[in-house]
Design a protein that fits this description.
about 625 residues; mainly alpha; about 80% helix
């Protein structure tokens, strides 16, 4: 029984691990797909979907939802709609995140009914708070666009009060109330809630300014100047909507007859902001108009003339920039200041242009998302062209290297060098064997491993022994040879003792050197063999190498030409858009010039009529 329980336990544990491994593989596949999808690499994402199709259950259902979202991203709306209808008919078990991505695509396309159908399949606990807030915003905004304001109001009431998504939903609901001419206490409370509960972030502050601005414009159109003034005062003086707020605040004061207070915001507007901003140019004509209302006609006339000169100088600058825009390097100067030289979605791009006359004039244009994307595309194409140019030069160097090495392989004389190296290697092997013999001999012969000093001592002992033998042959009675024999024997004994003491260390050092020498000889033997093989195969190894490099170079050059053509087309599109913007700005300045000149003529005409009416202009005076 215990044996059966053990087997069942092992089997269940193995099954659990197998299921966990399978789920882990599916999770990694999903992660890889979402990476390609969110980075815009739709071909790779579609290939990843094929692997999802081979699975069963929820993962296959999610593939249907994400394929529909991807087809929408690619502009294939009809195919996406067919898949979406099929999903609605048969049901689906896809994840809430997949449904969110699909809803986001439908919302971007303005298909609000399909957006609501997608959001219905989202399970709120499965999403992060940020994603859940986005889903709630899209749902509320879709209700607003479909005219179901009651449902939108209920949706907004259930959203977190301090979320930026709630603020955006309230913003859209306020616009819907303005469009429906709704007014009263409920509108005022909605605006107050929308501006009060926004988060204290840059995005929240900008949204607060925007809500205050649209509210002020609505109240100005309704003739409620005091309410408009209250909202304009609540706007910051350092946001993207500040110029519009200063301009409209001045007009609100004009509508209330407070002419002195209307001049101050316009003066600040002209001082702080770009003179080519539409709000600044409108304020240029607003100041003398207010002076006229104050009956300061002489000052108004002077301001009109100054304004005419300023507008003329601005028009001349616009014409100059427009004529030389194709040769202007403002785009290249912007590319140069980029510290990040990578390209694509992972590049960290600084969207601020270097300050000059061109960037000052095009400020309104280059702040649009479409133009920023075009500029980013132009930068990527420039970097890609530079990269292909470097690769093209590198491949040309490769061709030169291949030709040189091929020529060297045909002209060099290698065999004598290899034969000499082979002889040197054989001699090294013989030397190694001799040294190994000496090491073996040193076990029995003390004098087998002498160093230089010991060799000198051995020779000295040998010569001394010969001298003693000669003295013994002579054997004079006056000479005691035995003393020399004893001294020689003592010296020999001490010397033999010293050599025996150093014998082990000498053998160890020699053995270490012989092992290293044997290793080097084997390595040299392998290198010599490889060199012989390389020399034998060298002619064949270079065959076709140049052709392969030339083929790659041809493809690289073709890609470079395409990149250069795309770069030229991208810049041309930017130049066309810039010229259209400059033409529109020139027309606007011409309108303002016409108004200023008509006002100047009118003021002179009125002054002349007053002189005539007062009799200050006699018949004899020249006219």
């Amino acid at each position: 029984m215990n044996f059966l329980l053990t087997i069942l336990l092992i089997f269940s544990t193995t099954l659990v691990y197998a299921q966990n491994d399978e789920q882990e593989v599916l999770r990694l596949k999903k992660g890889e797909y979402y990476y390609h999808y969110l980075t815009g690499d739709f071909p790779s994402a579609m290939n990843q979907l094929k692997q999802w199709r081979s699975s069963e259950g929820a993962i296959a259902d999610e593939a249907d939802v994400m394929e529909a979202a991807m087809l929408l991203s690619l502009g294939l709306h009809q195919k996406a709609q067919d898949i979406f209808i099929e999903i609605q008919q048969k049901g689906n078990n896809a994840s809430s995140q997949a449904w969110l991505y699909l809803a986001r695509r439908w919302f971007e396309l303005g298909e609000y009914s399909s957006t609501l159908e997608s959001i219905k399949n989202i399970n709120a606990p499965d999403l992060k708070l940020e994603m859940l807030g986005e889903a709630q915003f899209m749902k509320a905004a879709s209700y607003i666009e479909l005219g179901e304001h009651k449902k939108a109001q209920e949706m907004i009431a259930n959203m977190p009060r301090s979320s930026i998504w709630t603020g955006l939903a309230r913003h859209n609901f306020i616009l819907a109330m303005f469009a429906g001419n709704n007014s009263g206490q409920s509108l005022a409370l909605l605006i107050e809630d929308a501006t009060f509960y926004l988060p204290d972030t840059d995005e929240g502050k900008n949204l607060r300014d925007r809500i205050n601005l649209i509210s002020a414009l609505h109240f100005l159109q309704s003739g409620k100047n005091r309410s408009a003034e209250k909202h304009l005062k609540n706007m910051s003086l350092a946001g993207p909507y500040t110029p519009v707020a200063l301009l409209q605040y001045g007009w609100a004061k004009v509508e209330q007859g407070q002419f002195d207070e209307a001049l101050q915001p316009w003066r600040e507007l002209q001082t702080r902001f770009n003179r080519f901003d539409p709000e600044v140019m409108e304020s240029m004509l607003g100041v003398p108009h207010v002076l006229e209302l104050m009956n300061a006609n002489t000052q108004a006339l002077n301001i009109y003339e100054i304004t005419e000169k300023r507008l003329l100088s601005m028009k001349d600058l616009l014409i100059q920039i427009n004529n030389g825009l194709a040769e202007n390097t403002w785009l290249e100067d912007w590319v140069i200041i980029q510290s990040d030289r990578s390209w694509g979605w992972q590049a960290d791009i600084e969207t601020t242009l270097p300050f000059n006359d061109t960037s000052a004039v095009l400020q309104q244009l280059v702040s649009e998302k479409k133009i920023v994307n075009q500029m980013t595309e132009y930068r990527d194409l420039l970097i890609l062209t530079e990269y292909l140019t470097e690769k093209e030069e590198s491949l040309r160097l490769w061709i030169t290297l291949v030709e040189k090495r091929e020529q060297d392989s045909k002209t060099r004389v290698v065999l004598p060098v290899l034969e000499k190296a082979s002889k040197d290697l054989i001699q090294a092997k013989i030397t190694l064997e001799q040294m190994q013999g000496l090491l073996q001999q040193s076990n029995e012969d003390v004098f087998a491993l002498p160093n230089d000093s010991e060799d000198i001592k051995i020779n000295l002992l040998a010569r001394t022994a010969v001298s003693i033998e000669q003295l013994m042959k002579i054997n004079k009675a006056s000479r005691n040879v035995a003393v020399y024999q004893q001294r020689w024997a003592r010296v020999k004994g001490v010397f033999l003792w010293q050599m025996n003491a150093k014998k082990v260390s000498k053998q160890w050092e020699l053995k270490r050197q012989l092992v290293a020498m044997d290793r080097l000889i084997k390595k040299a033997d392998i290198q010599l063999l490889e060199t012989r093989l390389a020399n034998r195969w060298s002619p064949a190894s270079w065959q076709g190498m140049k052709a392969k490099v030339v083929t790659i170079l041809t493809k690289t050059s073709a890609l470079k030409k395409l990149a250069e053509q795309a770069t030229v087309e991208s810049k041309a599109a930017l130049v066309v858009d810039s010229k259209e913007f400059l033409d529109g700005l020139t027309h606007r300045i011409n309108d303002y010039l016409s108004q200023s000149r008509l006002s100047i003529a009118r003021l002179y005409d009125e002054a002349l009529q007053r002189y005539v009416a007062n009799g200050e202009l006699s018949d004899g005076e020249p006219q």
